[in-house]
UniProtKB/TrEMBL annotation:
PANTHER family: 2-HYDROXYACID OXIDASE 1, S -2-HYDROXY-ACID OXIDASE-RELATED
Keywords: Flavoprotein, FMN, Oxidoreductase
Chain residues that bind FMN: P80, V81, A82, S109, Q140, T168, K235, S257, D290, G291, G292, V293, R294
Claim: Transmembrane helix is one of the keywords in the record: no
Binding site for glyoxylate: Y142, H259, R262
Protein source organism: Sphingomonas aracearum
Molecular function terms from GO: FMN binding; oxidoreductase activity
Name recorded for this polypeptide: Alpha-hydroxy-acid oxidizing protein
Organism classification: Bacteria, Pseudomonadati, Pseudomonadota, Alphaproteobacteria, Sphingomonadales
Cofactor(s) for this UniProt protein: FMN
Family: Belongs to the FMN-dependent alpha-hydroxy acid dehydrogenase family.
Active site (record annotation): H259
Keyword Flavoprotein: yes
Length: 364
């Protein structure tokens, strides 16, 4: 079912455009402002060059790693992406089945268009059918205007077997003119007060409105840390004192993200920021990165600069739009195969071999 001319994530991106209504495509590719940050996320990867180790043995090589105590066959996760039924009728169900088949870790968005319990059940069912271990599954939390609603989401995610909570801190307020088509909705939030992300600024003034009162704060992080025994990862831009504060508040991991250039234009590329964040964290917790990861060599570059794993977001929608479950499975396979090839050509048998010494630094 996969046409032979689809050989890279770029091929899927190009093809997806023809498969999606213009408004949905515009939503997927949305950027803040002039798109400086969006473009820079990619450009940062393209500025880095690699240097191989000569004559290194590749015996016993593997792309596997352990993250928060859980085995990952490949250090690439499918990141949280809202409303996946925009791209394919099966939406998040297709994604989780594909991820399970390939052992790929994934993060379900609060704004999933399929209820989180159904996604968790589909994961177990697929693992059972395929006779494989269920792939790692995390839940991304957008704090809700009412704390009891956030607590309900947390309890539901725990009960359904999600293994970590990702608190997204960078999209508290956002302009959005996109209107969901009939049949696609925030399936987890039925009966809850409208989330701030749905009730977006939409061109109106912000200050003095309920939107700013509902933006998450340090108190919310402290509440979350106390409210669950699951590992909590913080997703967004965390530098300097904020980073220390998040670690002191008990964050178990960081996902360095500028929300794919969708929120504040002018933020630095995540890859450019990574060395300083990794140095500050100094191995105390895992640092993950997203934003513009599209090839195996991108994964290599992020790991050489201090990330323990990366996430991809828009590519999930591209793959879903083009080929549903098979497309997402192919996406997971492509990135792992490209990573293996890059590691072999670099003379790196394991992810631990991906260090700064593999980078040609004169350019940076
Ligand atoms: C997102 N992103 C996102 N993040 C999050 O924490 N919760 C969410 O519900 C969503 N939803 C969402 C929808 C769409 C259409 C896009 C494109 C993105 C952000 C996403 O997880 C990621 O941080 C960025 O998209 C950067 O990665 P890519 O797209 O460059 O791989």
């Amino acid at each position: 079912t996969i046409p032979p001319d689809l050989r890279s994530l770029a091929d899927y991106e190009q093809r997806a455009r023809a498969h999606l209504p213009a408004a949905t495509w515009a939503h997927v590719e949305d950027r803040a402002g002039r798109g400086i940050t969006l473009d820079d996320n990619r450009a940062a990867f393209d500025r880095v060059r690699l240097l191989p180790r000569a004559l290194a043995s590749l015996a016993g090589g593997s792309t596997a790693s352990t993250l928060l105590g859980v085995h990952h066959p490949c250090p690439v996760l499918l990141g949280p992406v809202a409303y996946q039924r925009l791209a394919h009728a099966e939406g998040e169900l297709a994604t989780i089945r594909a991820a399970t088949a390939l052992g790929t870790g994934s993060v379900l968005s609060t704004l999933s268009s399929v209820p989180l319990e159904q996604v968790a059940a589909a994961r177990l069912q697929a693992a059972d059918q395929l006779d494989v271990a269920p792939a790692p599954l995390w839940f991304q939390l957008y704090l809700q205007p009412r704390r009891e609603d956030s607590a309900t989401l947390l309890r539901r995610a725990e009960a359904a077997g999600y293994q970590a909570i990702v608190l997204t801190i960078d999209a508290g307020v956002k302009r959005s003119g996109f209107v969901l088509p009939p049949g696609v909705e925030a399936a987890n939030l039925a009966g809850m007060e409208a989330p701030r992300h749905v009730a977006s600024a939409g061109g109106r003034l912000l200050f003095g409105t309920a939107l700013t009162d509902a933006v998450p704060t340090w108190e919310d992080l402290a509440w979350l840390r106390a409210a669950t025994d699951l590992p909590v990862l913080v997703k967004g831009m965390l530098v300097g004192d904020d980073l220390e504060r998040a670690l002191a508040a008990g964050a178990d991991g960081l996902i360095l993200s500028n929300h794919g250039g969708r929120v504040l234009d002018g933020l630095p590329a995540t890859l450019d920021l990574l060395p300083q964040v990794a140095a500050a964290v100094a191995g105390r917790v895992p640092v993950l990165l997203d934003g513009g990861v599209r090839t195996g060599t991108d994964v290599v570059k992020a790991l050489c600069l201090g990330a323990i794993a990366v996430l991809v977001a828009r590519p999930v929608l591209h793959a879903l739009a083009v080929a549903g479950l098979a497309g997402v499975a192919h996406l997971c396979h492509l990135l792992r195969a490209e990573l293996e090839l890059a590691m072999a050509q670099l003379g790196c048998a394991t992810l631990d071999d991906l260090t700064e010494e593999r980078l040609f630094t004169t350019l940076r």
